[in-house]
From TrEMBL:
Pathway given in the UniProt record: Cofactor biosynthesis; thiamine diphosphate biosynthesis; thiamine diphosphate from thiamine phosphate: step 1/1
Source taxon at top rank: Bacteria
Organism encoding this protein: Alishewanella maricola
Entry keyword annotation includes Nucleotide-binding: yes
Residues reported in the UniProt entry to bind Mg(2+) 3: 28, 73, 209
The entry's keywords: ATP-binding, Kinase, Magnesium, Metal-binding, Nucleotide-binding, Thiamine biosynthesis, Transferase
Name recorded for this polypeptide: Thiamine-monophosphate kinase
TM stretches of this protein: none
Note, other: Reaction mechanism of ThiL seems to utilize a direct, inline transfer of the gamma-phosphate of ATP to TMP rather than a phosphorylated enzyme intermediate.
Kinase is among the record's keywords: yes
């Protein structure tokens, strides 16, 4: 099967058929209609076999995750996901594998109301690069640069579950049968907080998604905003699965630095805190206040109550 047959068979109808796509897959470029009064948000993520996923991963799960991690970046900026582009490098055209991968792409793109509008296909070591585009009302994008001294720091959901799932898949820990489904779901099928991100447009002063671990990601907000922060690690939200499967110290390590949670990390000024519970209650996602922004520029202090907590690991980084 040639490149163009592959595209036509598996990737010409991924996601929903959006009315704002004039020309999608099959031409030299896509033609899109942008709503008046909106800005475009663009993000790109690359996944490489052996670095971001196991070569023998379930292709359906891989298709889901590729869309989800990109859409999560849009969610963090309060954007509505709209269009996806995909560049694939494949060692061979395995039709059974491609059918499952495309199914994972399609069902996830459809769920988030996205359409695949183009990309590229080449032969080589297995890797994928996806560019996701979204729209946000003009001037309403939430960035990492808006946190102010005194703001409260929040996270959605629970932390550390995806990292626990990875450890179990690698045979590095034991998990009771009642928790296995939960941790595998969090590892293979992350759920970006898209609706909640849009709800935060007029409330959050800064935001990002947690992909490389809280201890590694929060400093990005601190640097961009020119502030510091303290986090009370006793407040970190952890699932029962994480608590039951690890020592307290290991659970804390995974919650701080495990990565791939794709939860939202955001800050809220004191005068907007009162509206949070009412604003976010329709979305069914718990939020937890874990600390506050300080004036100690670039400094992240971890505490247990009022006592300092010594911790060195800062989350995943390439090239280190």
């Amino acid at each position: 099967m040639g490149e163009f047959d592959l595209i036509a068979r598996y990737f010409s109808n991924i996601g929903v058929k959006r009315t704002d796509v004039s020309i999608g897959v099959g031409d030299d470029g896509a033609v899109l209609q942008v709503r008046d009064g909106y800005d475009i948000v663009v993000t790109t993520d690359t996944m490489v076999a052996g670095t971001h996923f196991f070569p023998d991963v379930d292709p359906r799960a891989l298709g889901h995750k590729l869309v989800a991690v990109n859409v999560s970046d849009l969610a963090a900026m309060g954007a509505e996901p709209t269009w996806l582009s995909l560049a694939m490098t494949l060692p061979s055209a395995d039709e059974s594998w491609l059918a499952q991968f495309a199914a994972g792409l399609h069902e996830t793109a459809e769920y988030y109301n996205c359409q695949l509008i183009g990309g590229d296909t080449t032969r080589g070591p297995l890797s994928f690069s996806m560019m996701a585009k979204g729209q946000v009302p003009r001037g309403k994008a939430i960035t990492r640069a808006g946190a102010k001294v005194g703001d409260y720091i929040y996270v959605t959901g629970t932390l550390g579950d995806a990292a626990l799932g990875l450890k179990w898949v690698q045979g590095q820990c034991e998990i009771s049968k009642k928790h296995q489904g939960h941790v595998l779901q969090r590892f293979h099928y992350p759920s970006p907080r898209v609706a909640l991100g849009q709800a935060l447009r007029n409330t959050a002063s800064s935001a990002m998604d947690i992909s490389d671990g809280l201890a590694g990601d929060l400093p990005h907000i601190l640097r961009r905003s020119g502030v510091g922060a303290y986090v009370d690690i006793q407040r970190l939200p952890m699932s029962q699965a994480l608590k039951d499967s690890c020592t307290a110290e290991e659970a804390m390590h995974l919650a701080l630095s495990g990565g791939e949670d794709y939860e939202l990390l955001f800050t809220v000024p004191e005068n907007r805190r009162g509206s949070l519970d009412v604003l976010l209650s329709p979305y069914g996602v718990p939020i937890t206040c874990i600390g506050r922004i300080t004036g100690a520029v670039g400094k992240l202090e971890l505490k247990t109550g009022e006592q300092p907590y010594a911790y060195q690991h800062q989350g995943f980084q390439h090239f280190l």
